[in-house]
Write a structure and sequence with these properties.
The chain crosses the membrane at residues 21-43, 49-68. By secondary structure, the chain is mainly alpha-helical. It has five helices and no strands.
Length: 165
């Protein structure tokens, strides 16, 4: 997808997120702490000397909270879209699961209990390949293809009959 419509803030936050998560940022932060610690005797370990590191780290932490939250929101949204696409594309998956992040905590707990029960049933299978074999995946793919072809043929017939009338 094109990224030409990114705002200045979007570009900056993407860059800052990548940079602050890099080894360069960690090394830089470590060097700042080392320099601060080494200058302790020069400034006689004064309150001002301590205030410099306290104020600096507080400001950086305050700004990083918002930067991290923005990056996490973006990543979370992208993951949700990808998961929704997988659910929508899988014929056997429930479409009711799409956009469940909008449900209440109580509703999510109910769904969680349902899937825990399914996991309990799956644990009863001693052979992990029994429900996830390549053959089963091929059968599932063939089934999905046949169902799609059947629905498509029905749609074509309906369309042709509507054109004749």
């Amino acid at each position: 997808m094109a990224k030409s419509n990114n705002s200045i803030f979007e570009k900056f936050s993407d860059w800052a997120t990548k940079f602050t998560g890099s080894s360069y940022a960690f090394i830089g932060a470590t060097l700042i702490v080392i320099v601060w610690a080494v200058t302790g005797p020069v400034f006689d370990y004064s309150e001002t000397w301590q205030l410099v590191i306290n104020t600096g780290t507080t400001i950086i932490t305050f700004l990083m909270v918002f930067l991290i939250q923005k990056a996490q929101n973006k990543d979370s949204k992208a993951i949700q879209i990808k998961l929704n696409e997988l659910l929508a594309a899988n014929e056997k998956a429930s479409n009711r699961i799409v956009d469940i992040e909008d449900l209440t905590e109580k509703e999510l707990d109910q769904l969680h209990c349902y899937y825990e029960k399914l996991a309990d049933f799956a644990e009863e299978d001693t052979d992990i390949h029994s429900s996830h074999s390549i053959d089963a995946a091929k059968r599932n793919q063939d089934y999905k293809h046949d169902q799609f072809k059947k629905r498509h043929d029905e749609w074509l017939q309906k369309r042709r009959s509507n054109e004749l009338t």
